[in-house]
Task: structure prediction
Amino acid sequence: MDLIKLLKGIVPELPEILEKRYNILRSIYYNQPIGRRGLSQRLNIGERTIRTEVNILKEQGLLNIESMGMYLTEEGTKLIEDLKYIMRELKGISNLEERLKQLLSLEKIIIVPGNSDEDPFILKDMARAASKYIKTVITDNSIIGITGGTTMAQLAEEMPEGKVAENVLVIPARGALGKEVETQSNSIAAKLAKKLQASYRLLHTPDNLDRTTLDAILNIEEVKEVIELIDNMDILIFGMGRADTMARRRQLSEEKVSQLLEKGAVGEAFGHYFDINGNDIWESLTVGLSLEGYSKIDRVIGVAGGEDKAKAIIAIASLRKDITLVTDEGAAKKIIQLVNKATK
Result:
């Protein structure tokens, strides 16, 4: 008999207790040093419960409590990594991956436990899972393209430092979008390259242009060179956004946003807006990877999580099936619910 099933049969409350203590340890790890009150607020758990649990964890030698706050011991830090695999089994993540893989007909799916809409630390876990996988597919002379956004910025942040292969080049797959430099593709590409001890090139153009400006920019020699590299990239890492959210980030008018939603747009990627069946509803004038170019890239890794992005993931995942999707439990369960509802 499966050990996890056996333990759950004997101790039915085991998953709940283990998940609570795992979340406490993980929250301390990401915020250390942190006080009990701060931890209580972050996890939305009563201070009395927090006090009881951290005392148990302290007795086990997993954390220390000092005047400046709590922090994990070396053993506690190691345990978090080990617990990730147990949490996957307790929550049936492997079965969930297989079920989602069949529903979306994708080549590979990696799911992390939790819902990033409810717990911001799940985004970190998702970024870590994606970065760990990415390091396994990079080879000598790889040209890696990466888009912008919060998820991609977190991925670059969580990428372990160290060279994986020789002569690796990282480039932005799109022009800049939004006012926050940290989440623009140029900044993310540069940070990812430094983590991988690779080279990088930048694309100094905005991502939302009128036709005249776009034609002029495409004639700039430096831009031409980066566009050529984009056309020859062999690995793409990209995020998936909700159509309305991305339209507003591109500062489209509310009238245009309404038009997109009326036409059924639910997801956005590479400046294209898609309905839930993957039909291209509208394309904004941008510099960078095209939809045609997307279909030709050897290895594609999409990262997105949270129930809120379920429809966007369904839409964009339908564009090609030989991709790797890294997502979270919340998005996976919502996708299954939506697909099952649509097939009834």
About this structure: The chain is about 50% helix and 15% strand. The radius of gyration is 22 Å. The CA atoms of residues 26 and 80 lie 7 Å apart.
